[in-house]
Amino acid sequence: MQDVIIIGAGVVGCAIAQRLGRYSGKVLVLEAANDVSCGASKANSGIVHAGYDAVPGTDKARLNTKGARMMQGLCSSLGVPYGKPGALVLGFDADSKPALEALLKKAKKNGVPGCRIIGREEILAMEPRVNPEVSYALYVPESGLVSPYELTCALADSAAENGVQFQMNTRVKSLRREGDAWLVQTDRGDYTSRTVVNCAGVGAGELHNQISSRQVEIIPRRGQYYLLDHTLPLSFQMTLFQLPTPMGKGVLVTPTTHGNILFGPTAEDIPEGEDTATTHEGLQEVLKKVRLSYPGANTRTVITTFSGVRAHEKGGDFIIGAVEGAPEGAFEAIGIESPGLTAAPAIGEEMGDWVAYFLKLPANPRYIPPTPVPKAFSAMTEQERRVACQTDPDYGKVICRCETVTEAEVRRAVRRPVGARDIDGVKRRVRAGMGRCQGGFCMTRVMEIISEETGIPFEEVSKKGSDSAVLTGPIGEARND
Amino acid sequence: MIEKAKAIDLLVVGAGPAGLAAAIAAKKAGVMDLMVLEREEEPGGILNQCIHNGFGLHRFREELTGPEYAQRDIREARDLGIPVRCGTMVLDITPDKEVTLVSREKGLEIFRARAVILAMGCRERPRGALAIPGTRPAGVFSAGTAQKIVNMMGYMPGHDVVILGSGDIGLIMARRMTLQGAKVRACVELMPYSSGLNRNIVQCLDDYEIPLMLSHTVIDVKGRGRVESVTIARVGEDRLPIPGTEQEIPCDTLLLSVGLIPENELSLGIGVTISATTQGPVVDNRFQTNVPGVFACGNVLHVHDLVDFVSAESTQAGEAAARYLGGYEDTGATEVRVVDGPGIRGTVPQRLLLPQGEIGEGLEMMFRPDRVYNNCFLTIKAGEAVLVSQRRRILTPGEMATAKLSPQLLETLRNEKELRLEITAEKQVS
After folding, report:
1. Options 3.30.43.10, 1.10.10.10, 3.20.20.140, 3.50.50.60; CATH of B126-258
2. CB atoms < 10 A from the CB of B79, how many?
3. Is A393 in Cβ contact with B104 (below 8 Å)?
4. A476, B103: Cβ pair inside 8 Å?
5. Rounded Cα gap, residues B381 and A10, in angstroms
């Protein structure tokens, strides 16, 4: 019997797990995929929203500003890339000023400091590549960036260091209250727990509706993106949002914490929550809309396109806390769409504390504060690199040439408390394969290292879990049809 | 603690065919203090995974496999006592040729080189660069990665294959996968012509009855964990898919052979100017970049079809580096810019330096046309004056073409600023 079963190892599930690590209790995280951070947490804009956008008084608004305030400290304690370059919300016609003023008002109500409306000249001084036809912008100095999957992985590590168990490849089928416990049925057997926390992203609605008299509707909303190579100097320092126009919700242009540029996302409601395909139409739409902010946008340095599916709840707000209309001991954080990444630290703290309070869990006397993920070789100074190579000669072997990722880092990605078990897992943790050749050169070496470190046979190392084998067998062997 | 940079005359970055040939030539020309740096664990570069034959016909008048070809240069470099440091990655080169490198054995080191030869080769364009829509499952490989998996590691990357792009590696892999028991459904090419060598189309596709579908592209990839199918469609003259021509092909693998990109990230750090057409450094006829003492050759300079020509070019680059180190200076040389005229897409070199005094030797320009031309004329002009207008039976983007400039012709350029290559339908006369 577990004290807590957390369903879903996205950024929200991992943040809750990390918070619960401060308490003494048996906590298990069940994840359908082969790794943490495999849903919307790995495919989003990576923006730490300052909080000017959410409707004042909602959970979204409250948790957004709270999460934004927590993020920098959390990232520095976890060793996760974070930046605060600020943002501009661009308006392109004369009547954009009132709309921007309305946003400014909301910003003030939500407690977002430093925002002001600026004119064309100041906009172009800040970001010379912006469309010169811009009229006004809301300047948001508190807008930040975070590497979303690195944050999720680091939260998971910290949770695991404090005794939280993670079980991947386990899809929760149903939830049922049996006696004074919850029965959690999965495709890999049943579990019982005193409490359950549903943070299953796009799959959370179905589980919620199994146990609650108050039905919710989670609409999978897909967002497609272009990722561009990092070039120096950066073409943009800040995040550029667009004021919604009669043409619809705009798209953003933003640098990432690693100096790449992102264009996107679309917002398409789709029937199937796991449909992360990109489409020709979607990508064309992104490009067309991006050119409003950045007329020079082109796909010459695009290294990949991707899409993520966020969980939009019909009511529009986050649904967090004890599950309404359900037996006791059921908690949830669902409908966590944008700014969910920003809010995740706050959601983790509140939900973790609620569940612990409900269970009357004592504080963990052996709580280990997060160990920061070591600095990436690519980000080290010359002297730091020298020292790193002396400490561990594996730093001397560059595996991923595009992102300058060394063997020491790839090995550590696998050895971490919640370590990578597949190629994409290594990529998310240390960026091997994230660059312009997209793993063309380093993939096989990464596979060898995963195999050496985990004992998974080389030919079984997958891209992203059991049904994604990279190789189909040794040469010269008959095929088993 | 600041460690002092070690001084060296010449560093060659890359021990593939380009780097080895350049180093060998430099050493033979008297450069004693040199070193070749290689990021892989063995020298030879991409030749090591090219186990098919057909290499060396021009240079050795023999048909060699890739490893055999490489071995000849590796042996010669060894016999000449040229140090080749493997497992060594160059992290950075500054404009004053301070080279930072890292290796497992020696950690971080800094050299200050008097001359540098860039020979890093090229990489393959990945799927993302084409923005092919669909899911992102396992089973999508660049052709070169698949080649490494089969030839170097002894595994199959799939059994039921569609190939997008008809670059040479893709064609070679069509045959390789077939010989290994895979079914290659089609080789799909966006353009109305192949970008590969004709001999490869015959020997790798036709001989195995693999259809080459010109003016087609992949418009969708399906499959969650692993590729389950790709959808192809015919494209119009605008290269956009024509509705109604879609065709879904079940397969477990998509190989991409959609172009090679010279790897010039280090070059950019040095301040080397990169050509928009070749995507390699802009060089003069001594293969020197705009940064004095920095030379470039092989696929980092422009993508070649045949390694024989890489070796020939790199030999010249190595000799030029030796001359530079010997104190030769182009004082008083006339500079003539080489310009791509109509029909030409990328010429090397982009600058000609004509020395004072007698011009002893001619030189060879290398170029590619922007599309296929039959029975055309390659015309070389200085201003409005036609210097040469030669009939060419066929010019195709898949095969690098050359134009020889004789010493006499070069003499006539002394008062010119610009040399223009163009492709014309008719013979041109001044």
Report:
1. 3.50.50.60
2. 9
3. yes
4. no
5. 64
List the single residue in A with minimal CA-CA distance to B255. Answer: A440
Q: Do A404 and B91 touch (CB under 8 A)?
A: yes
d(CA A478, CA B253): 18
Give the residue among A123, A7, A71, A97 at the shortest CA–CA distance from A340.
Answer: A71
Do the Cβ atoms of A217 and A204 come closer than 8 Å?
A: no
- Catalytic (active site) residue A49: yes
| Domain A2-41+148-218+315-359: homologous superfamily in CATH | FAD/NAD(P)-binding domain (3.50.50.60)
Residue B2 confidence (pLDDT) = 56
Contact: B126, A306; criterion CB under 8 Å = no
Compute the distance between CA of residue A63 and CA of residue A71 in angstroms, rounded to an integer: 12
The per-residue pLDDT for range A39-73, each reduced to its tens digit, is 999 999 999 999 999 999 999 999 999 999 999 99
Return the CATH fold of A377-460. Answer: Arc Repressor Mutant, subunit A (1.10.10)
Q: For A419-452, give the DSSP string.
A: ---SHHHHHHHH-TT-STTTTTTTHHHHHHHHHH
| Nearest residue to A66 (alpha-carbon basis) of A359, A362, A351, A358 | A351
Pick from A396, A444, A465: CB nearest B102? A396
What number is the ipTM of this complex? 0.94
A459: distance to nearest CA of chain B, Å?
Answer: 8
Q: What secondary structure, in 3-state letters, does A171-195 show?
A: CEEEEEEECCEEEEEEECEEEEEEE
How many Cα neighbours within 13 Å face the side chain of B220?
19
| Distance separating alpha carbons of residues A186 and A205, to the nearest angstrom | 16
Element (H, E) at A97: helix A96-109
Give B-chain residues touching A476 at CB under 8 angstroms.
Answer: 154, 180
Residue B346: enclosing H or E segment and its boundaries? strand B344-348
Residue B131 pLDDT greater than 90, yes or no? no
| Residue among A97, A99, A110, A98 at smallest CA distance from A52 | A110
Chain A residue numbers with beta carbons less than 8 Å from the beta carbon of B148 are 444
**Token pair for residue B218?**
């992949």
Contact list, B39 vs chain A (CB under 8 Å): 398, 401
- Answer whether B377's CB lies under 8 Å from B369's CB: no
Q: What is the pTM of this model?
A: 0.95
The one-letter code for the residue type at A153 is C
| Residue B1 banded pLDDT, cuts 50, 70, 90 | very low
Count CB atoms within 10 A of the CB of residue A80.
Answer: 23
- B131 vs A438: CB contact, 8 Å cut-off? no
User: Distance (Å) from the C-alpha of residue A68 to the closest C-alpha of chain B?
Assistant: 32
Residue A130, CA atoms < 13 Å, CB-side half-sphere: 30
Q: How confident is the model at residue A196 (pLDDT cuts 50, 70, 90)?
A: very high
Residue of A nearest to B259 (CA): A437
Cβ contacts of B226 on chain A, cutoff 8 Å: 467-469
Beta-carbon neighbour count of residue A343 at 10 Å? Answer: 34
pLDDT digits (tens, 9 = 90+) for B342-388: 999 999 999 999 988 888 889 999 999 999 999 999 999 998 899 99
Mutation choice for B interface testing from A301, A305, A422 by most B CBs within 10 A? A305
Architecture of domain A82-144+221-308: 2-Layer Sandwich (3.30)
- Top residue of A261, A468, A480 to mutate, by most chain B CBs within 10 Å, is A468
Residue ranges per structural domain of chain B:
6-123+261-325, 126-258, 334-424
Which of B128, B156, B225 lies at the smallest CB-CB distance from A465?
A: B225
**How far apart are the C-alpha atoms of A351 and A347, rounded to whole Å?**
6
Q: Determine the residue of chain A that is closest to B102 in CA distance.
A: A396
Among chain A residues, the shortest Cα distance to B256 is held by A440
- The distance of A173 to chain B (nearest Cα, Å) reads 20
